[in-house]
Amino acid sequence: MWNYEKRLQFPVKITKTCPKSAQLIISQFGGPDGELAASMRYLSQRYTMPCKKTAGLLTDIGTEELAHMEMICAIIYQLTKDMKPEDAKTAGFDAYYIDHTSGLWPQAAGGIPFNACEFQSKGDAITDLFEDLAAEQKARTTYDNILRIIDDPEIREPIKFLRAREVVHFQRFGEALEQIKDSLDSNNYYYFNPEFDKQMMQARK
Amino acid sequence: MWNYEKRLQFPVKITKTCPKSAQLIISQFGGPDGELAASMRYLSQRYTMPCKKTAGLLTDIGTEELAHMEMICAIIYQLTKDMKPEDAKTAGFDAYYIDHTSGLWPQAAGGIPFNACEFQSKGDAITDLFEDLAAEQKARTTYDNILRIIDDPEIREPIKFLRAREVVHFQRFGEALEQIKDSLDSNNYYYFNPEFDKQMMQARK
Amino acid sequence: MWNYEKRLQFPVKITKTCPKSAQLIISQFGGPDGELAASMRYLSQRYTMPCKKTAGLLTDIGTEELAHMEMICAIIYQLTKDMKPEDAKTAGFDAYYIDHTSGLWPQAAGGIPFNACEFQSKGDAITDLFEDLAAEQKARTTYDNILRIIDDPEIREPIKFLRAREVVHFQRFGEALEQIKDSLDSNNYYYFNPEFDKQMMQARK
Amino acid sequence: MWNYEKRLQFPVKITKTCPKSAQLIISQFGGPDGELAASMRYLSQRYTMPCKKTAGLLTDIGTEELAHMEMICAIIYQLTKDMKPEDAKTAGFDAYYIDHTSGLWPQAAGGIPFNACEFQSKGDAITDLFEDLAAEQKARTTYDNILRIIDDPEIREPIKFLRAREVVHFQRFGEALEQIKDSLDSNNYYYFNPEFDKQMMQARK
Amino acid sequence: MWNYEKRLQFPVKITKTCPKSAQLIISQFGGPDGELAASMRYLSQRYTMPCKKTAGLLTDIGTEELAHMEMICAIIYQLTKDMKPEDAKTAGFDAYYIDHTSGLWPQAAGGIPFNACEFQSKGDAITDLFEDLAAEQKARTTYDNILRIIDDPEIREPIKFLRAREVVHFQRFGEALEQIKDSLDSNNYYYFNPEFDKQMMQARK
Amino acid sequence: MWNYEKRLQFPVKITKTCPKSAQLIISQFGGPDGELAASMRYLSQRYTMPCKKTAGLLTDIGTEELAHMEMICAIIYQLTKDMKPEDAKTAGFDAYYIDHTSGLWPQAAGGIPFNACEFQSKGDAITDLFEDLAAEQKARTTYDNILRIIDDPEIREPIKFLRAREVVHFQRFGEALEQIKDSLDSNNYYYFNPEFDKQMMQARK
């Protein structure tokens, strides 16, 4: 279970209303490579992860991604809370405004609703860790793109923090993958080993 | 942000492998009226909720739903962790097994992936609270249906706990709705008040 | 069955081409809280509604929502029928134009196709009525947002009529909920009654 | 607008509970080629159909498809209304039962929720009519498949009526297509005419 | 199987960066009536097509649509490869840029991800061919709309080629339909023949 | 462009009708980690891949995945082509049969339609290659699961071939990743290099 602590992992202080930026950053809330997808990926995978230390890592990172999701929501909220309908009109935010006013709802910048097809929990230790490495790179790239487009330093600060955390997560998953390769028994280890695989195939024939 | 506490909100001790039951209970993980949907609905709505006390309620219940989601995942995991492929074949669990082995992935019993279209965050206090009342009733009904189909007392115990919590949440949201009706100013209060609405329409004409 | 009557429930006379407004109003055709969703929700729920009077109410309101859907389509059609391709370009309507020209197709303003995940038919009288109360509030809020953004009085008139009808529907569903609470027998009545629920749980144990 | 007439277009009298059959027939309610998809396709296309007679045909057939949808729902309802939870378990209906009890909700037999991607409204007279011809054939084929699988004569009677109506609709759309080919002016007529098309391309170059 | 030949079916030489045009043309990559949908429709249907000549036609046209998809991707790539982030901002391409940079990803202009609900493979020869005739008309109309909106002759040239090919495909499918009508035996031939249908119904009764 | 060669990359000779197995194997046609997803992932990513050699690798593997998709379709077709409706009934294949007869349509075993949310093309060389490594592992795991469930040696032979190819693809992508790490200039290289990243952030501040 989780206990809520009423503080952001990193401060968010946005003073300028800008629904346009909110409309782009929302991908890190409900987009395919956003924080909600990351959290749910890891919190789902952890149950069947055979290495208990890595299962704990998945729980920790999955929990941290919830805090990241909270930061992104705080950014979007602060960018839009003083928005007048006219601001929505000029910003291209109006389509979102019609169905959600300035409420938060998890979608991608381009409008696709968050959905579980955007991540995988495969029940195979090697596979799940590669899925996680890819996820962290995809999140990092999305932050790169946000930083290429958005200039406001008040937004860039928390975004840069979040991006740096993705790189750390990537490193943690890389270390976990190395450990799994050493510790998995022959029943599970298919990594770069066609010779072994041939034997397994023989046995089942 | 959230801190993880390594215990279930209510104990889950399943001793009998039964992928068939897992395939049905998974709706309370990734189904339209499940715990993940509930959690995301409340954690999304809380930002724009004008009454701070109710915003806190949304945070608390949203956080508790994560713990419920965890219990449901524990049930599914315990029902399938010792599953042999032949068990999957006889149980009708095989379609899920092909794409996820015994890993946890949020979908409904009928196969629909979890997606944000299954809940709403509307940015209007009255509307969001009615959405929440409906959500709790829908979750309650899903638990009713699980209890009608599944006999195993080891499964029924945690399910009955979860169902009872839905009823409590429903009551909390009902109280919050009453408070909102009293406290919202004329700018926001449209509840059962066509007379007021007419005046507002006049003003904008 | 239904018989078509060739008149709109309320007149729609739009004289100014404006694809921009059409692009926003389309949420009340194919959006999550629009008239098509409302109609299908009620026309689906009516079969299993145990109280025959309320089943009739669901049929009546579901039928009226089809007329509302027709009005929304008429608004969109009149806003775009004289549209030249250049109008689509300047209005941001061009993405829709590529795939539908000026044809009507049910989607939300943000592009999400209409889909059944956006409403629920739960087969439980109390639950279905709460779902309906929430639906009417969500529709009312969408109309509020349209009225905040769109100034053209030719559009505002039919929209205000539609909004007022949502409030009436909300009242009708509220009355139906009160009747259900009185008339349902113990087998079905779970409303705010944990004491009864405990007994039912005991019986099945 | 529509007026409801409280009778089915063709009688439905099912006396045997069979959730298994319901689970298959539901494709003609919420499946890709079902009655709801047909109705929405035609009622959407009618606005931009330049030939007024064909626009009227679309309204009439779209309205009739609502009556067909009603018959399908009546079949499903009668097959499941006396269903006990144990019936759901033995029939494979249980996944649906968890999320909807015996309530009606539009999905395909395989579980896909009804969604607007399953039909098109293109805003081009020739194209829309071909879309409609294809739709009637797809519906006819679905009825063929239902008749191949289901033996109960009480179900077969209304299904055969519905299938026959699809064939009639197909014929009506074929006649409408012939009329359109004659009546459309050079601005719109691209049917089998690359010579004309070349000229139009020249003009715009 | 397929062998790749490193040339485009028709040349694509775009010299002006224009993400706005890319955002519209992408519908012919991943939109409901685009080249990927066409290719997958035909390559799926070919297996159960009873007339081997038509199965070959489906393979040929399905293979050609891959080449068309490649041309569309080349157009999009050339329109965006020299794009600077500021270009994305001014062009409305920024929402796509956040999640894909200038990478190619199959979606519709309005944002809907490519999905199999957008085409059908019905396993019935007549039905599948009508589905194909409709598909070619829908693709043709999408090209019409692109030509109405986009002026750049460098883009118009390959688009006009692609449009002309749709017309040819439509003709091929029309010829195939005529052949099927002659060659199918009574078990399969339902085309415009209620008399025969009645007999088949009798036999199964 | 592609040229079709009328032979399977590896022989498929299935002599026993078994719709049950078809229903599971279909995940490698239209499932989240199947051959169609793989093909489209690579054929989409190749345009923006800066290293031309790797772009060629993506084209080659993407083309080979089409041949794999063809083999999977051949397996499904051979398993179901002589299927009688009664076979569908006993095998649980009936829900699919209603909407597709024995036609091929890309979905997952559990019913989810193939959709682009199941893969990513991110426009970043490192990220796209990690996405590809993960994809090959996910496909490998799906083949593992098929081999755990299905005993028929006629099916196992081509499946084992396909699985072995996934391992080879994984190796190729691993080599490509190493080359990219060496060849990318500072503008693009973020791999495990927070020091460099800090400088880039400084520059943009």
TrEMBL record, chains A, B, C, D, E, F:
Molecular function terms, GO-annotated: metal ion binding
Superkingdom of origin organism: Bacteria
Record key words, sorted: Calcium, Manganese, Metal-binding
Cofactor note: Binds 1 Ca(2+) ion per subunit. Binds 2 manganese ions per subunit.
Pfam families tied to this protein: Mn_catalase (PF05067)
InterPro entries hit by this protein: Ferritin-like, Ferritin-like_SF, Mn_catalase, Mn_catalase_dom
Binding, Mn(2+): E35, E65, H68, E136, H169
Co-factor(s): Ca(2+); Mn(2+)
Binding site for Ca(2+): D60
Family listed: Belongs to the manganese catalase family.
Protein name from the UniProt record: Manganese catalase family protein
Organism this protein belongs to: Qiania dongpingensis
